[in-house]
Each structure stands twice: as structure tokens, then as C-alpha cells.
Design brief:
The longest helix has 27 residues. The chain is mostly helical. It has 10 helices and no strands. Helix 5 packs across helix 6, helix 5 runs parallel beside helix 8 and helix 8 runs antiparallel to helix 9.
Amino acid sequence: MAASVRDDLLAAGLAVFDRVGFEAATVAAIRTRARASNGSFFHAFGSKKELAGALFLEVLKHYHAAALAALDPPPDAAQGIAQLIHAHLDWVVSSRREARYLFEISRSEWGEDVRDAQRAQNARLAEGIERWRAPLVARGELLPMPPVMFLSQLIGPAQIFCRAFLSGRDRADPRVEADTLIACAIRALLPPDRIHKQ
């Protein structure tokens, strides 16, 4: 099967899921939007759920790539915090449909194959962040804490604004809060004696 047919089906799935949600989406609607035959669909994907899982992994890969690009080349502690927050906010706004799918629409009951692939992708992201973070912690430029705590302090507050934006509860661009989010993250993640030097 041509990769373009698979890509067309994934793009169509994203559009249909974004418009009507996972439950109401149908294979027929996805096929129609992709201009694909029934045979083409089932050659590429065994079901709507299989397409949705593949789409989830594809979107997750794009999100992770945007985050890791913010750390290349490796910035100092405060710059890295700022660049990661900007990368998160920029990706959510510029890839709104994908972000809605990743954070609002995608399913919690993916099959084990999708969960395994998700864990592998998450591990690659964590490794990339740790390659930047660990030397800074060792030099006393970032506070020592578990990686999950670091990410929750870094992205958690920004994600509150992003979820409100993605759901339509708040129409304001979440990037307008970037400076405040960065200042708060710096206070949470840098040693006190390093903060006044920023």
C-alpha cells in the first residue's frame, strides 16, 4: 500500500475525530474524506480503533519532536525552561487539531501494542530531556527532583491554559501567558540563589 493512502486516511481520521469525536466517527466518513475505497481502508487498518491508535502515535511523535528541537543545541537552565514552554505552547496553537486529538479526544483504552509504542516514545522524550537536564542538576543549576516532578512543574501549568484553549472554554491564545509561566517555572526549578541572576 502506498504510504500516501495511509497518510490520507490518518489525516482524514484526524479531521473526522476532531469534528465529531471518536465514538461518532465512522469508517465510511473517514474513507469519504480520504477518497479511499473500503478495500484501501482495511488494507491499511483493521478497524477505526486501529487507525485511531496509529494516529495517536503519529501525533505524539510530532509533539515530542517539537519538544526535543527546543533543546538542540542544549541551552542553559533558564533558556531551556523557556524554550520548552514556548515549544509546548507553540505546538498546541500551530497544531491545534493534533493537540486536541492528543490531549482531549484520544482514547485511554488503546491496545497493548499502542501502549507499548507510546511507552517507547515517552522514554525517548524522557531520555532527550534528561541528557539536557542531568548535567545542569549535577552543576547545581537546576534543583534535583524526579523527572516526572520536573515535567509536571515545567509543563503542567502551561497545559492548564492549553486545555482551556483546546476545549474552547478560553479563546485567548495561551502564548500570551508565556512570560508568567516561564517565570513561575524558573522559580520552581532553579535553586533560589540562581533565580536572581536571571
